């Protein structure tokens, strides 16, 4: 089996006027993704997602990746990252950049999807076996909105949808942070995992003040309180608080993740399976994390393809240092609750987080079936 064709498909869904939402670093008016479609010489199709501005990364794939990918086999997936880092694809000076890493990820995931379909096995089996058959989805919700939404409303919706854990956006001010966390905890309940996401909007002193102000609400982890490049700040902050620190959604490739994990700056690492480098790189990141006793909980804010990839990866993440039969902590998995038809409408059977669980797909490859008519409905020119 060899790759006969590659197509990068930028997708976009525009929100209605006045409906922009996001976090402290800004709001978005669109939901986007770039799907990668590989077709093999026997007609098998492999899918991946590059999680980056769609027109830009699609053009990059056409110009720098397409020719090199034609003729590859599904067993070339692991070596693709090295080809990028050494400059065989994309040029030596650019291999570590976010757009190149995102393009690499989408193509690499699609190669694994082809491999799984060829062998008749889900990707998690090809990555070394399944540690779990399901995860606990947490509602990623209570966004910063341009219409000044009542923060209680989305949290109440999450509870009605039977989510038993949640992550909310904070980071505008200490007073606002505390009030939003108070509301979330009151609605979610005392025992449910509750995470907070600052999107890197504070300095060390600001983050410290905020974390101390919300500490009474039993926070499971604090996500990106500082800019992603401030590794020393994370180390300093971690020495002054007793809440786990999480980061990684804005990191790219194994070198950045290795530095982040080995620095001792974080307790939870969050690679995104649309831009971390692909499955092989994610497995390496998980090994480095396990070696340094750091938890792995992927960042997931993708289309349905990226969600499926993250599920396949999460199924393989060990419970180390706990024994699997004695693990006493749920494997939390991010499930965005904002408007996104690219997550909800691209599959013939949507991923279902109801009842407080989300099953890992067991069909070959990513375990999903793409509705190509829906893909074309959201596709945009570039």
Automatic annotation (TrEMBL):
Record-linked Gene3D superfamilies: Enolase-like C-terminal domain, Enolase-like, N-terminal domain
Pfam families named among the record's database cross-references: MR_MLE_C, MR_MLE_N
What SUPFAM superfamilies does the entry give? Answer: Enolase C-terminal domain-like, Enolase N-terminal domain-like
What InterPro entries does its record include?
A: DgoD-like, Enolase-like_C_sf, Enolase-like_N, Enolase_C-like, Mandel_Rmase/mucon_lact_enz_CS, Mandelate_racemase_C, Mandelate_racemase_N_dom
Outline the extent of the Mandelate racemase/muconate lactonizing enzyme C-terminal domain.
148-244
Q: PANTHER family, from UniProt?
A: D-GALACTONATE DEHYDRATASE-RELATED
Q: Any idea what this protein is called?
A: Mandelate racemase/muconate lactonizing enzyme family protein
């Amino acid at each position: 089996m060899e790759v006969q064709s590659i197509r990068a498909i930028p997708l976009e869904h525009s929100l209605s006027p006045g409906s922009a939402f996001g976090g402290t670093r800004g709001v978005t008016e669109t939901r986007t993704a770039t799907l990668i479609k590989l077709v093999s010489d026997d007609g098998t199709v492999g899918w991946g997602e590059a999680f980056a501005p769609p027109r830009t990364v699609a053009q990059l794939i056409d110009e720098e990746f397409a020719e090199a990918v034609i003729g590859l086999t599904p067993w070339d997936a692991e070596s693709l990252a090295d080809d990028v880092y050494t400059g065989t694809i994309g040029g030596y000076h650019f291999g570590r950049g976010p757009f190149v890493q995102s393009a690499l990820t989408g193509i690499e995931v699609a190669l694994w999807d082809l491999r799984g379909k060829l062998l008749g096995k889900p990707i998690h089996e090809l990555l070394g076996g399944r540690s779990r058959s399901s995860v606990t989805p947490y509602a990623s919700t209570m966004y910063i909105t341009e219409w000044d939404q009542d923060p209680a409303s989305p949290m109440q919706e999450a509870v009605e949808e039977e989510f038993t854990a949640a992550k909310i956006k904070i980071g505008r001010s200490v007073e606002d942070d505390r009030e939003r966390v108070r509301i979330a905890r009151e609605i979610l309940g005392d025992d449910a995992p509750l995470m907070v996401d600052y999107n890197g909007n504070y300095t060390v002193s600001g983050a410290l003040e905020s974390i101390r102000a919300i500490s009474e609400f039993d926070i499971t982890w604090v996500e990106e309180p500082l800019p992603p490049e401030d590794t020393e700040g994370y180390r300093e902050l971690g020495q002054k608080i007793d809440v786990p620190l999480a980061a990684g959604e804005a990191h790219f490739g194994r070198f950045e993740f290795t530095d982040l994990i080995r620095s001792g700056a974080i307790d939870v690492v969050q690679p995104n399976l649309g831009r971390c480098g692909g499955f092989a790189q994610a497995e390496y990141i998980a090994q480095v994390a396990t070696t340094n006793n750091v938890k792995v909980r992927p960042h997931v804010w993708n289309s349905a393809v990226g969600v499926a990839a993250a599920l396949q990866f999460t199924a393989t993440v060990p419970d180390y240092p706990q024994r699997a039969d004695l693990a006493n902590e749920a494997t939390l998995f991010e499930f965005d609750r904002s408007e996104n038809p690219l997550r909800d409408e691209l599959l013939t059977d949507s991923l279902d987080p109801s009842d407080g669980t989300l099953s890992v797909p067991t069909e070959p490859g990513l375990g999903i079936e793409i509705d190509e008519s829906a893909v074309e409905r959201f596709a945009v020119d570039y």
